[in-house]
Every structure is written in structure tokens, then in C-alpha cells.
Automatic annotation (TrEMBL):
InterPro entries: ClpP/crotonase-like_dom_sf, Enoyl-CoA_hydra/iso, Enoyl-CoA_hydra_C
Entry's family note: Belongs to the enoyl-CoA hydratase/isomerase family.
CDD domains: crotonase-like (cd06558)
Annotated protein name in UniProt: Enoyl-CoA hydratase/isomerase family protein
């Protein structure tokens, strides 16, 4: 087990199951540059582990993941528009490396989510093979509220799971849905009552671990392989679209409104 002191992501592996825990509860597990680097390292360890049977992705505290790092977006507003390109390329590029590593994990990945799943945190959860959500948990795209487009592959994976029309409605109107609605739409595999999330996830992981190891890995490759082959190109397009949005006054208004806890006003 990794030493949790100073770790924004904690990695543990025991009895064929890896536990990857987002560990910034005071920041609602928002993904800083450091957290993304540690996520990339944890996912890469899973890709390379031949004895692994399942992976559980979770967050400490009341919220699974609130999305991107607020401090990073505050710093972006202090820059002239053209000067935002390089910091964005680094930050989103790191997030996309982590998403690619997550997508390449050859065994089933279960996301255990509670409270809220927002922004790139939603991208992260949707890239898992199964989502177990605590009752009342909300899924919030958040991107258009910031005047930008998704990153982390959400614009690819969400339509594949819930359908193009529903995905467009969620993303364009920043519509949030709760765990029950997400289950009806096929986004969530299981809804756990409060206090039962960990047990529900363990039952699912143990059930997967009891199956035939080689067949499970081969089945995931067959089902997910085609989308994985296209993922890198899609992530590049998302980065380009996000950067184009981040140079605009609408992005400045969206981020300012978020920081000031008010509703953004676009088109002024």
C-alpha cells in the first residue's frame, strides 16, 4: 500500500483487487496537476499487473470528484487569452494521458461514486466499466456553465452509454441527473443505499474476480477495443475544442461566475 501522507491519490492492491482512491476531500477531490499525475501512475500500475482481477475507483469524503482544479482555472483568468494555450495543453494533456491509461486497464474497473460527480470527474467515472452510485448522488457535466466543451473523453463515452440525444441534452444544457435517473438511462449499474456503497462495490468486484480471468480480459478487449482505438484522436479533438473556448470572453464569464458562485450570463 502507498503511504497516504501527502498522496492525492492512494493506490492499494490486495487479493487481486486494486483500490484507487482520490484523496483531496477538502477540495471535494478536484483533480489537481499532482492528482492527475498520481492517477496516471496508478492506472499504469494496473495495466502492467498480470495478477489483477478488478479495479475499484473511489473518492474520500462526501463527494466522489468535483471536477477540475479551481486554483488552475483561477490562474488561467489572470493570463491573456493566447497565454492560456500552454498551461491548458499541459493540464488537459495530463488528464488525457490518465484517461488513456484507464481505458487500457485490461480488467473490469468499477467506479464507486457518492455525493456529486462533476466535470472531468464525470469523465473519469464514465470511463469505468461499471458505476455503483450511492442513492442521491448527482451527475453534473458542468462544462457549458464554464463556457467550454468537455474533456477527458466525455463527449465520446457519454453518447455511447446513454445515447446521442440524451447526451447532447445533458451536455448542452448542463443538466444534472441523480443516481436513480442515471440507472434508468444505463449510466449507473447499481444504486446503493446510503452506507452500503463499499459493500455493494465489493460484492460486484468479488463476483467479477471469481470469473475466468483470461476470458474476462479477452471479453473486455472485444467489447471496448474499437472505442479504445479511436480514443486518442478524440481526446486530441477535445483538447483543441476546449482551448478554442478558453480564449473567449464566454470562458472568462463562465469561470468568473463559478468562482463568484453566481449564474453566468453569456451573449452580452
Amino acid at each position: 500500500m502507498d503511504d497516504p501522507v501527502g498522496q492525492e491519490v492512494i493506490f492499494e492492491q490486495r487479493q487481486g483487487i486494486a483500490w484507487i482512491t482520490l484523496n483531496r476531500p477538502a477540495a471535494r477531490n478536484a483533480l489537481s496537476d499532482r492528482a492527475l499525475q498520481q492517477l496516471l501512475e496508478a492506472f499504469s500500475r494496473c495495466v502492467a499487473s498480470p495478477e489483477l482481477r478488478a479495479v475499484i475507483l473511489r473518492g474520500t469524503g462526501p463527494v466522489f470528484c468535483a471536477g477540475g482544479d479551481v486554483a488552475f482555472f483561477r490562474q488561467l483568468l489572470e493570463l491573456l487569452p493566447e497565454a492560456r494555450r500552454d498551461p491548458l495543453a499541459h493540464y488537459i494533456g495530463l488528464a488525457h494521458q490518465a484517461m488513456l491509461a484507464l481505458a487500457r486497464i485490461p480488467v473490469p474497473v468499477i467506479a464507486a461514486v457518492q455525493g456529486a460527480v462533476a466535470g472531468v470527474g464525470m469523465s473519469l467515472a464514465c470511463r469505468a466499466d461499471f458505476i455503483v452510485a450511492e442513492a442521491g448522488c448527482r451527475f453534473v457535466p458542468a462544462y457549458t456553465a464554464l463556457g467550454t466543451t468537455p474533456d477527458g473523453g466525455l463527449s465520446q463515452v457519454l453518447p455511447a452509454i446513454i445515447g446521442e440525444q440524451r447526451a447532447l441534452e445533458m451536455l448542452m444544457f448542463n443538466r444534472s441527473i441523480d443516481a436513480a435517473q442515471a440507472q434508468q438511462w444505463g449510466l449507473v449499474s447499481h444504486v446503493a443505499e446510503p452506507g452500503w456503497l463499499e459493500r455493494s462495490v465489493m460484492e460486484l468486484a468479488e463476483g467479477l474476480g471469481a470469473g475466468p480471468a483470461v476470458a474476462t480480459r479477452q471479453l473486455k478487449r472485444l467489447v471496448k477495443g474499437e472505442n479504445l482505438a479511436r480514443l486518442a484522436d478524440h481526446l486530441d479533438r477535445e483538447l483543441q475544442a476546449f482551448t478554442a473556448c478558453a480564449l473567449t470572453a464566454e470562458f472568462e464569464e463562465g469561470v468568473s461566475a463559478f468562482l463568484e458562485k453566481r449564474t453566468p450570463v453569456f451573449g452580452r
